[in-house]
Amino acid sequence: MAASVNDTCKQSVERTSLNPTSFQKKTRNKLLSIPGTRLSVQNGQLLVSTGVTSLDYVLGGGLAVGTVLLIEEDRYDSYTRMILKYFLAEGVVCQHELFIAAAQDHPNDIFQELPDPILDDVVMHKPADQPRLSSEPHGNLDAMKIAWRYQNLPKVQSGLASSSRFGHYYDVSKTMEPEIRQAAKCHHFYLPEHPRQSSATRSPVLDSYAALLKSIEEVIRREGFSVAAPLTKSRNILRIGLHSLGSPLWGDDLCCQDNPKHSHALTTFLYGLRALLRSSLSVAVVTVPSHLIQSRSLRGSITRLCDNAIALESFKGSERETGPLCKDYHGLLHVRQVPHLNCLTSQLPDHKDLAFKLKRKQFSIERLHLPPDLSETVSRVSRADAAGAAALASACDSGNKHLDF
Amino acid sequence: MFAELNSILNVSPEHFSTGEFVLLSDRQSDASFLLHHFLGFYLRAGCQVCFVALAQSFSHYSAVSQRLGVNLSQAKEKGQLVFLEGLQESLSILNPHDARTGSEAMDFLRNPGAGLQCLFQFVSSSVDHSRGAEDGGRGPPVLLVDDLSMLLSLGVGVDAVLDFSHYCRTAICSQLKGNVVMLLRCDGEDDDDDDVGSDDGSERLLRGLTHQCSLALHVQSLPTGYCRDIHGQVSSQVVQRQAGGQQRKMTFHFKVHDKGASFFAPGTSSAVL
Question: Which region is the signal sequence (chain B) (predicted)?
């Protein structure tokens, strides 16, 4: 019996030596070959990274192709802009095509400010951080034991990360090298440069939004991003970044008035955008200054017309910036909506208390926790009060004294 | 189709009452899983179904129904399902340079103030057509609308949507003895501050439709906050107009799974028992 096992082992060894590629890559789908994408475990959707690894985790693995991510801007639009740049930079590194639209700054300026990718930082965990194995007796002796009951508990990780590596890391203190940038194909839409056309007066969409929608559609059609397009060349992903939609510079009056005249212009545009994206290999990030919009129902319908929605609430300018509780973070991140796409459930986050911080080089999202209060003037019940209360309690009900603490 | 919901509502694909107007609504939650339930339910019951999908694409509904054991493309080929894909149809209207013309159902996009006659014509023709052609073993006609709030977002007025729902109710529930299921997604903070959101479009629409409906299922998030094991609560209200205003109201919790949903009485989640 053992001999036969040995024989089969030998045979298999020989076979593997003859044919080293016994493992064949499963190529079920042609879409799989697009760089910078992966398939969702849950519903088989094609995902791309947002560029911020922790944000990918919050959104259930990444952005599904064909969906829109809405980012509600923080008060000074500094962090939102950074996430948008991360998203575009990830597109440049993965050699996706870009489409940038803005009304305030020129898209070229946004494009030039993209953060620098760190392409060789595969080693993230230092060996010293790894938990010691039990086969190191002297190491165990050296380690200080605080409480033996806690030693088997898993180490709490406040940083969010998925198990497999997806997306890249970026250094926000530097901008991307020009040669990397120039390799990417980028389409611009800058509203002031765009010729105004007053033909679409009967359309409910504003001229600016109609022109933008038309321009996106043209790019999708011309460059073959449509799903229906013939498979002549290899497919690629189009990343669309739309900056500060709904702001007055787009000719919209959502933010200025209580009862805006064009109250359905933005929602109709987002409906058209969703229709475009669902039938093409593209993914969009839209930032909206929604804290400027007065009407709550309008904010709700904007959220519902996008698939993912997150909101950034920065501490800048509020008293929490200097307060001792949140000094580790720069703001809170609210997940407003996660998509139900091709499946009944959505990937619900474990917890909704999330905060973001901007380190020297990196933007990251962590779960919010308060630091231990180490100051002398902690407002606790002082010992004398506690003793007094205990005495009082024992006087009232001496039988239950062992329950008091 | 969720078996537990059927037993709560006391219906089955073999045995259900007709002439009903079911209103699904949600607030700070997502009630679209109930719409998938009703879609599967009526397709299994053999009804002639007209589905007006404004919120998502056909592939989405098809993929979800596949998991629930219903094949939408097959039903579409058989003619049992008439599917209006609002997203696709709207593209040719929002980008007018395109020469191709879809059906005229989404023509209200050109002038949202004018009302929803074109959409109602689409509904009534698809229901009538199927009855005229081959009325073999098909059951009563059913209309499902995914997300009336999309119509509001596209600029259609509240009164126009109410007119549309009233016409549908008259044509399908009363004349043809069929059923209508409509989904409306609201966005208020909660129920308490009704005065604040009173001039809100979706709130007014919700009140108007609640007045018309015969069964209201309202989905909302848990009042005690976010929970991983309980996704929200559904309150169902059966309105009986004839029998002296006796109304039954029930509240139960739910959890949506990958291939279905479970409904249970408040406090009896499997996570706490």
Answer: none
pLDDT at A45: 84
Q: Hey, of B61, B94, B149, which one would you mutate to test binding to chain A, going by the most A CBs within 10 A of its CB? A: B94
Q: What is the CATH number of the domain that holds B164?
A: 3.40.50.300
Domains of chain A: 34-122+155-368 (3.40.50.300)
Burial of B248 (0-12, 13-18, 19+ CB in 10 A): exposed
pLDDT above 70 for A404: no
**A267, B68: Cβ pair inside 8 Å?**
no
Q: What is the DSSP letter of A134?
A: T
| CA–CA distance, A303 with A336 (Å, rounded to integer) | 8
Task: Tell me how far apart the alpha carbons of residues A75 and A301 are, in angstroms, rounded to a whole number.
Answer: 21
Contact yes or no for A304 and B153 at CB 8 A:
yes
CB contact under 8 A, B228 and A341: no
Is residue B86, in this structure, part of any structural domain at all?
A: yes
Domain that holds residue B149: 3-187+200-219
Residue B236 lies in a domain: no
A19-41 pLDDT, tens digit each: 455 555 554 544 456 778 888 77
Find all residues with CB under 8 Å of B191, minimum gap 6, and list them: B27
Number of domains in chain B: 1
- B255 assigned to some structural domain: no
Tens-digit pLDDT profile for residues A117-169: 887 644 444 344 444 444 444 444 555 566 666 666 666 566 665 545 677 88
Shortest CA distance from B60: residue in chain A: A342
Share of chain A above pLDDT 70, in %: 68
Nearest one of A108, A115, A107, A91 to A176, comparing CA atoms? A115
Q: Residues A198-242: pLDDT tens digits?
A: 554 455 667 888 889 989 999 998 888 888 776 666 788 999 999
Those residues of chain A whose CB sits closer than 8 Å to some CB in chain B are 43, 200, 202-205, 210, 213-214, 217, 264, 267-268, 271-272, 274-276, 278-279, 296-297, 299-301, 303-305, 340-346, 348, 350, 352
Interchain proximity B67–A343, CB inside 8 Å: yes
Q: How far apart are CA A304 and CA B193, in angstroms?
A: 22
